[in-house]
Amino acid sequence: MSGILSDIYEERFLECSYGFRPGRSAHDAVKVIDQTLMTRKVNYVLEADIKGFFDNVNHDWLMKFLEHDIADKNFLRYIKRFLIAGVMEGTERKESELGTPQGGLISPVLANVYLHYALDLWVEKVLKAKLKGEVHYVRYADDFILMFQFENEAKTVMQLLKDRLKKFGLELAEDKTRILPFGRFKGTKEDFDFLGFTFFNTHTLSGKYRVGVRTSKKKLKTKRVAVKEWLRSRLTKPISDTMKIVRVSLLGHYNYYGVSGNFKMIQKFWKYVKYASYKMLNRRDQKGKIRYEAFLRIWNYYIEKPRLTKDIWTFEPKPI
User: Strand (E) positions, the chain?
Assistant: First the structure.
């Protein structure tokens, strides 16, 4: 069913949408944001967060959106049954009138359909036509940002955005939504997070303006805690098995966070995992501390050094 929905909507979805779409990734969204901030007239960023989006998708609105594009009544009934199937809380089944079931294969596509009509088309076709300055919009699933040339238009859109989302049963998380000055003409120390990365103003060694992208401190802290707790659970497990898992986890970290300019942050996480692994091996050795030279032989055998894996700085002009 998810494949059918993707086939139907992939040609309808707009360029501004990146989440859960074939051939598109979080890195594509990060790259577009980075290049937009670097090359366009952006002075203000509206960092927005939809409060509990997946729990508040209105079924009636979603079915109206689907009916607009799908004529097959039987297929629509299957989707409706999926939506009202409910969720299990313990041993009890709870009917769901809002939201999409977590873990459902078609939930991401349905979320894109909902925000395509509730947000994407409104921003790209209606809102931009009303504004005098530049405005750029990027969405990944329910996370999105808007980039503006003028502050007054950013403030106006923030209010319009609240009203627009309210119409479809959604609301902004007030504590996670803000407008901040950002860009080459602002030179502020402000930064913002998106998809686990922090965007910040900086300069190259030659003094040229540069938008920096690094691992979010919040995400890094969360990952450190997870590593520490996991290693504690490995005290009695075979060292080879543990190091193989550490290797795979670090490669996954490099593949996601190894974007242009972020080497220091992925190296920092690599060093933390190395230190935490050494401590874990010392705790499991009842005969005394393992010599650091012996640990290094184990570490270097299994673990690859940190490296960058994604180029987000090379500008790729769109085909005409």
Answer: 44-49, 87-89, 92-94, 135-140, 143-148, 178-181, 191-194, 197-203, 209-215
